[in-house]
Each structure stands twice: as structure tokens, then as C-alpha cells.
Write a structure and sequence with these properties.
Layout (H helix, E strand, L loop, with lengths): L2 E2 L1 H10 L2 H6 L5 E3 L2 E4 L11 E4 L4 E4 L5 E2 L1 H9 L3 H12 L5 E2 L9 H18 L5 H9 L4 H6 L3 E2 L5 H8 L4 H6 L3 E3 L4 E3 L5 E6 L5 E7 L9 E3 L15 H11 L2 E4 L2 H9 L5 E3 L7 H8 L5 E3 L5 H16 L4 E3 L8 H8 L1 H8 L3 E2 H8 L9 H14 L5 H15 L3 H21 L7 H15 L1 H10 L6 H17 L4 H8 L5 H10 L7 H29 L3 H27 L1
Parallel strand pairs: 14-15, 14-16, 16-17
Antiparallel strand pairs: 1-7, 2-3, 3-4, 4-5, 5-6, 8-11, 9-10, 11-12, 12-13, 17-18
Helix pairs in contact: 1-4, 3-4, 11-14, 14-15, 20-21, 20-22, 20-25, 25-26
């Protein structure tokens, strides 16, 4: 695995103009010294992302996304930080010098190599004479040679052929067991997949991490057999075909989410390359995060049965809650996209995709299922359920749905509006009862001091002379990391420090500091206030400690000594408050 020399990374970052690079991805408009655009990292409706040419940084004041040019490209394109550096290098004309004499970046590289060996072995099996039966089965299912090759479809045989092959490569059975390629039956290891057609499952960057095996010439059960979860495969962390689809998703500006692997395969081969498949019935938080990184609406095209409708309802709500725009396509006559394309062709599918309904419209119709809407009570419950779905909808969608309800069921539009307003008022009250926890004045001050330190070396000196350390370990470690970097480089600026932070174990904590900053301006007077806030909190903590100590001692002289210390601390606190009032 190659890596890029640090001095080359610095050269690329210094040559790159973050404003010009980001303009390749989203429109920016200048306001004063900075540029502003609609943030691509959340469902933004007005420009909330600021880009500073002076600092070579971007920051969204709504969702908190922040970083330098490499961070933006990495997050926008959902690629690794090293890949982002390479992309920026190409844009600014820097020729990269790659070093191959370092340890692999991933600690799982050896495991990925084993999975690649297994995948190649399975593919070779399918192309042998013994694999002709399986290949005929695939062709009867409408899979072409190109599709088989693109999706790396393979075949497993019996007699532990995979185990024997990998053993010949000096790979231990224990390692194969850990990767889910073999099982153990108290006496020996044996292949997990036997006489099955195999579909490899890849992670987001394209590593083979698992397999799905399907029977093809017998009634053997189960029909499908999946790899167990391993250190490199967590079912809830991947989406089938994501690594192939992500570039097309950005071009098409839509993600199509289907239910089965064959659906994704058929869609992709029919020209709908922006298609991925679920790995279960319900999306996980990790899978939703993968989808969020693509910054596009999602079309749910799940199976055309009751289970598919339920899955559409469940996943639509999860995606909507994550601020992702959701549309729905329900196919008629055929069960799933695979059958639909085989029966109607790709051109008919293209027409269907052009006319999705909003998720709210789907809910409007789906909520009618198994209800007798002639019954006043059931109709009332149905209307209330529809109104509940409008909780976070925009004004236009609300207007459409309310008019639809009024016209279809001969209801008063004014009554519906009043009922919706009442529901939303209850939601607001509930939110007030359980407000979000805000950072304390102390935490805000610490974060700003750390932020200042990341920007200029003089603030590191001020920190060391005024405070010297933070009481909390998490803050102290970040301050030490900043000081170490500045000492090594004999200077510091935020854009370069964040490049360094990508390899730091404190990366997440450092970015949390950046995200917490609401006012990125650097002002000497402000940092004095931040220092005073911390000193005041430290003195107040010491004051409480001494007061408690004074209560617990019985010796009069000791009580007097503690009392003197209390008075001295109270004077210091008053001096800080007096200085603040003068400002």
C-alpha cells in the first residue's frame, strides 16, 4: 500500500486554493472576505457553509462540518483521505511521489488478500468444465457473460477444494475460520460454501469481505447461505454494490435502493448503475451514514408485496429522520425489479423511475391498507396518522396532502389545518420539556483556546504561560498534540494541522473542537476572556473543595488557615469578574 511523503502533502495543500476546488463541486458566492454555499453534508436549504480563502478552511454553521480542502474532497466523494490528496494533486498539477516501503495502511490487508484469493478461486471454478451447469443456470436467469464478469460471480465445489487451495498458499485453517471461509466440526475444518453459485460482497471501498451463496441444481436448503460476521464484515455496515454504484449516484443525483442482490445486479446491468441493495429488511445507522455521504435523494424500489410495503414504510421513515429526501416506486404486476426488467425491458423501467411518488404520498396510500374508511372511527384514525406524517414536511407538501384529504373524504380544509397546527404545537412543547444539553461556558472557552492554538503559534505560548494545562485529560491531550506539531514544524496553521490530524488517534476529538466553533474570527481580547473563564471555573472548583474541607476539620487553627485561603480565592474570582465588567 502506497503512501504520500509528508512534504509532498504540504506542497499540494499550499498550492490548492480551497475556494476554486470547492467551486468544482458546489456553487459559491462571495460575501465580504469569505465565500458561501449550500452545505452538501446535510439537507441544507440556504447557504450555511462558509469557505475562507485566507484560512483555506470550510465550515458549516448549521451541521458543524469543517476541515481543509482534503477533508472536503474526502467527505464529498466518500473516498479515503489519501485518495482525496491524490485528487487535489491532479487538480493543481503536482506529481506525486509514492512510497511503498512503509507498512500497509490497513491492518486488515492480509485478510483482504485472502478474500481476494478465495474470490478468484471461485470465479475460476465457474469457468471450468465442471462449472458449465452453474453457468447454464445463470444464463437461463438472463445473466450475460459481461454481468457474470462485472459482478465477479463464482462457484464453490465440494471436497473442501477452497480449504485445500488456500492451505497450499500457507494460510492456516484458523485464519480461514476467522474469515468465515471454513467451519469446524470437532475433528476437521471444511468449506462453508459447497456446490453453490457465489456473489461476493464488497465494503464501501471495494474490498471483498464476504459471500452470498445460492443453490442452483438441487433442493438443498437453505436456498441462500451468507458468510458469518467477521472482523472485516459486519452485515449492518455494508450495502450490496455500493462500491460500484457511488460514482454513478453522484452523476445521476439519485440513489436507487432495492431489496435483493439479483435486483441490484439486473438494474446495474440494464443501465441503472446508481443502484444498491439492502443487506436485510431494515437499514442500520451505519448504512444510513453511507447513504448520507452521497448527498442525494433516495428512491425506494422494494418488493411489490406486503413485506416490501412494510420495508418501504420502515426504511422511508429511517431515511426521512436522517434528513434524506425519499421517493418511492412501487412496481406493478412483477414482484421485484429483476422480474420487472425481464418482463418489460429496461426502457419501461426507465419510464417508471422518472415518475416516483414522494414518501409522504406513499404513506398516504399505504396507511389505507386493511382499514374500513367508511367507518367514521377508522377514518378519523387514518386522518390523524396522515397528519402525524406531516410533522417535518415542507409547506408545499403539507398543502398538497391536506387538499387531497379534504377532497377525497369531503372534510373541512380549515379543520384539517387547525388539527395539524395543534399537533405541531404539542411537538414544540414536548421539545421544550426535554431541551438539548448545551456546552458550558467553561467547555466553550476551552474549545476556543484550542482552536486559537491550532491557528497561530503565539496562542500556544499564551496557553502555556497563562494556564499550562487543562484539568480534563481529553482537552489536555489535544493541547499537547497541537504543541507537539508546532514544535516540530516551528509554526502552525489550521489547514496544515488538520492534514496532520488525519493520522492522529485524537482525530475525532480535534474535529469536534472545530465543529463547536461558531465564530471563527481570531481576536486577542477574546482569548483573554476565555482564559479568565477557565481560571474562574478552576478557582470556583477549588473554593467549593476548601469549603467542604473546612466543614470537615475540627482544629480551629486549621479552620482559620483554610478560611484565609478561601478569602484569597474569592478575591481572585472578584478580580476576574471586575476585569470582565470593564470590558
Amino acid at each position: 500500500m502506497s503512501r504520500i511523503a509528508p512534504e509532498i502533502v504540504d506542497e499540494i495543500r499550499n498550492k490548492a486554493d480551497i475556494v476554486e476546488i470547492i467551486k468544482d463541486y458546489i456553487p459559491l458566492n462571495q460575501k465580504g472576505k469569505n465565500f458561501f454555499g449550500v452545505c452538501p453534508f446535510h439537507q441544507d436549504h440556504s447557504p450555511s457553509m462558509s469557505v475562507s480563502r485566507e484560512k483555506q478552511m470550510f465550515k458549516c454553521f448549521s451541521c458543524g462540518a469543517a476541515g481543509n480542502v482534503f477533508k472536503f474532497v474526502s467527505d464529498f466523494e466518500n473516498i479515503s483521505f489519501v485518495e482525496a490528496i491524490q485528487k487535489v494533486a491532479n487538480k493543481v498539477g503536482v506529481v506525486l511521489e509514492l512510497k511503498d516501503d512503509h507498512k500497509a495502511v490497513s491492518k486488515y490487508d492480509d485478510k483482504y488478500k485472502i478474500m481476494d484469493l478465495a474470490n478468484n478461486f471461485y470465479q475460476n471454478n465457474l469457468n471450468t468444465k465442471a462449472g458449465e451447469g452453474a453457468k447454464d443456470y445463470l444464463k437461463k436467469r438472463g445473466l450475460t457473460e459481461e454481468m457474470i464478469k462485472t459482478f465477479e460471480i463464482g462457484l464453490s465445489f465440494s471436497n473442501n477444494q477452497l480449504r485445500n487451495f488456500l492451505n497450499s498458499k500457507k494460510i492456516a485453517n484458523e485464519e480461514l475460520f476467522d474469515l468465515g471461509l471454513v467451519n469446524f466440526n470437532n475433528t476437521d475444518y471444511f468449506d462453508v460454501f459447497v456446490d453453490r453459485i457465489l456473489f461476493p460482497i464488497h465494503d464501501a471501498v471495494g474490498h471483498v469481505v464476504a459471500f452470498t451463496g445460492r443453490v442452483y441444481d438441487s433442493q438443498k436448503t437453505p436456498k441462500y447461505l451468507n458468510s458469518k460476521e467477521t472482523v472485516i464484515f459486519k452485515k449492518g455496515n455494508v450495502l450490496f454494490n455500493y462500491h460500484r454504484a457511488k460514482d454513478s449516484v453522484r452523476l445521476e443525483k439519485k440513489l436507487i435502493l432495492v431489496e435483493g442482490n439479483m435486483d441490484a445486479l439486473r438494474m446495474y446491468a440494464s443501465g441503472f448503475k446508481n443502484t444498491v441493495a439492502l443487506m436485510g429488511t431494515s437499514l442500520t445507522d451505519e448504512q444510513i451514514t453511507l447513504i448520507q455521504k452521497l448527498h442525494v435523494p433516495v428512491i425506494l424500489m422494494l418488493d411489490n408485496d406486503n413485506a416490501g410495503a412494510l420495508a418501504t414504510e420502515t426504511n422511508g421513515k429511517l431515511l426521512t429522520k436522517a434528513n434524506i429526501i425519499v421517493e418511492v416506486v412501487r412496481l406493478s404486476n412483477q414482484k421485484d425489479p429483476d422480474e420487472y426488467i425481464l418482463a418489460n425491458g429496461a426502457s419501461k423501467m426507465a419510464e417508471v423511475i422518472k415518475h416516483p411518488v414522494s414518501f409522504l404520498e406513499f404513506e398516504y396510500e399505504n396507511l389505507k391498507e386493511n382499514r374500513n374508511l367508511q367507518d367514521p372511527m377508522e377514518l378519523s384514525n387514518y386522518v390523524k396518522d396522515v397528519l402525524n406524517c406531516l410533522e417535518t414536511a415542507d409547506k408545499i407538501t403539507i398543502d398538497i396532502i391536506l387538499n387531497k384529504l379534504a377532497n377525497e373524504f369531503n372534510l373541512s380544509l380549515e379543520v384539517l389545518k387547525q388539527e395539524l397546527k395543534s399537533d405541531k404545537q404539542e411537538i414544540k412543547i414536548a421539545k421544550k420539556i426535554s431541551p438539548k444539553v448545551k456546552n458550558s461556558k467553561y467547555d466553550i472557552s476551552v474549545n476556543y483556546i484550542l482552536y486559537y492554538m491550532m491557528n497561530e503559534k503565539k496562542y500556544i505560548d499564551l496557553y502555556q504561560n497563562n494556564l499550562g494545562y487543562f484539568k480534563e485529560e481529553k482537552y489536555r491531550k489535544i493541547a499537547n498534540e497541537i504543541s507537539y506539531y508546532a514544535e516540530e514544524k516551528n509554526s502552525i496553521n489550521l489547514a496544515d494541522f488538520l492534514t496532520y490530524a488525519e493520522t492522529s488517534p485524537l482525530k475525532d476529538e480535534i474535529y469536534n473542537v472545530i465543529k463547536s466553533i461558531n465564530d471563527p474570527r481570531i481576536e486577542d481580547n477574546s482569548i483573554k476572556d476565555y482564559f479568565n473563564n477557565i481560571k474562574e471555573k478552576n478557582w470556583e472548583d477549588e473554593l467549593q473543595k476548601l469549603k467542604l474541607e473546612q466543614k470537615q476539620v475540627s482544629d480551629i487553627n486549621e479552620k482559620t488557615n483554610i478560611g484565609q485561603k478561601i478569602v484569597e480565592i474569592m478575591i481572585k474570582i472578584q478580580e476576574i469578574k471586575k476585569e470582565r465588567s470593564v470590558r
